[in-house]
Amino acid sequence: MIDTLLEPLTAWLAERAIFTPDTLAVYWQGIETTLSLVSLSLLMGFVISLPLSLARGSHYGWLRRPVQAFTYVFRGTPLLVQLYLIYYGVVFIDDVQESWLWPLVKEPFLPALLAFTLNTVAYTTEIFHGAIVNTPRGELEAAKACGMSRSLIYRRIVFPSAFRRALPAYGNEVILTLHASAIASTVTLMDITGAAQFVYSRFYAPFEAFIFAALIYLVITLTLLYVLRRLEARFNPQLRGVRKQRRKIMAFGNAIPQKP
Amino acid sequence: MLNLHGYGMRLIEGALVTVELAALSLIIAVLLGLVTASAKLSKRRLPHLLATLYTTLIRGVPDLVLMMLFFFGGQVLMNDVSDWLYARFGLDLFINIDAFIAGVLTIGLIFGAYMGETFRGAIQAVDKGQVEAATACGMSRALIFRRIRFPLMMRHALPGLSNNWLVLLKTTALVSVIGLSDMVRVATQASKTTLEPFTFMLFVAVIYLLLTSLSEWVIKRLTRKYNAGFTRGRS
């Protein structure tokens, strides 16, 4: 059944010079690599950033300063340099070639994952920290007046309220991490950009190769944006219907004849 | 002691390439951003549509992919043009795309989209009464832009603008991939020949940190300048 459906598609593909099933498979592999790299680094980045963002706002200097230094360095240098440092540098760690880690770090995937995770942790920590610091004082006072303990205040008040405030910036960070992952192709990882480079060098067809990759990224970006917008709407129920109301007001405003 | 194996001068030259590249692309990005912002705020449909298409497409695709598309694609296009010139007029000239110019144009084009979004919000935030007052004083449109709109807009645009600048500065590292000899490329070559990646990459990282720190200092001064006369809201 599926074969008969796919037959015209395969026939059509066979006529194409560049987008053969083989190259499409390369792109597909690239999509898998990009998505696993991005989702893993974002997931780990999210988990690590939560405690770090608390440490970033701590009253204790010994807790706050290392985190500050970390985010300062990782946000102040290009991701490409961080990736090169980790990827080319790992070989020179003493005895790493004899250790059990070597088969893992020899391939570019883990060094790239490490670089992306560290990078996104730095940005996410600052985003969460900013959101926590900006918790309205009244919310905290109300919670204290209710007799909540410190941990309960964080769990019930600070985190949910901060998460809501952090979501737009964090969503931006998600998109930026997706786009930054294109850099992985520079350390020979076959992500979407790597696939495009492969197709480019094989057929010397830059437009086809890179525009196709660009379209894939565009589709992923727009999907992510849609999901993020849904999430924002879900976590901000107080804003529901506001847009509709605003549109109504605007429509009314436009109905009034304007002076020339 | 730091031993750069004779690559010191080349690294400094590379750093200069990075700074020049970033500064020139910033100029292009700001100009493009202003044009895009006014197109987006335009009442006419076509400029609005074109600007929206431009910002959406550019911001939806990674910088590196765009850079490769423009650079490699531009070269193929130029080859086609020179082939055509040869076939048509017998002109034998080979146009080679200069990596530096390609880099400046590409980064400028990419960040023009981000700047456009920043400026759009900032222009909208300018108090209408100020512009009306300027019009009532009989100022021309150009004068209004120079004396009223631009300085007032900059107060709102500065946070986004400085953020874009910091990202742009770090994006310049990508041109090393398309063959421009900026400091990252010099450092990569040096690490490959000397087998000391830590020395060179850390050196480059420190230069970038210096550049970003310097930028932040300048931004702080600028913020103070454009916030003159406005009291900071209590937090």
Automatic annotation (TrEMBL), chain A:
Keyword Chloroplast: no
Primary location class: membrane
Keywords: Amino-acid transport, Cell inner membrane, Cell membrane, Membrane, Transmembrane, Transmembrane helix, Transport
Pfam family, one: BPD_transp_1
Annotated transmembrane regions: 34-52, 72-93, 209-228
Cellular compartment(s): Cell inner membrane; Cell membrane
Name of the protein this chain belongs to: Arginine ABC transporter permease protein ArtM
From TrEMBL, chain B:
Record Pfam families: BPD_transp_1
Domain of life: Bacteria
Family statement: Belongs to the binding-protein-dependent transport system permease family. HisMQ subfamily.
Transmembrane segments: 15-37, 49-73, 93-114, 156-178, 198-219
Biological process per Gene Ontology, one example term: amino acid transport
PANTHER family in the cross-refs: CATIONIC AMINO ACID TRANSPORTER, MEMBRANE COMPONENT
SUPFAM superfamilies linked: MetI-like
Domain annotation ABC transmembrane type-1: ranges: 15-219
A cellular component annotation (GO) from this entry: ATP-binding cassette (ABC) transporter complex
Phylogenetic placement of the source organism: Bacteria, Pseudomonadati, Pseudomonadota, Gammaproteobacteria, Oceanospirillales
Compartments reported by the entry: Cell inner membrane; Cell membrane
Molecular functions per Gene Ontology: transmembrane transporter activity
Keywords: Amino-acid transport, Cell inner membrane, Cell membrane, Membrane, Transmembrane, Transmembrane helix, Transport
Membrane topology: Multi-pass membrane protein
Protein name in UniProt: ABC transporter permease
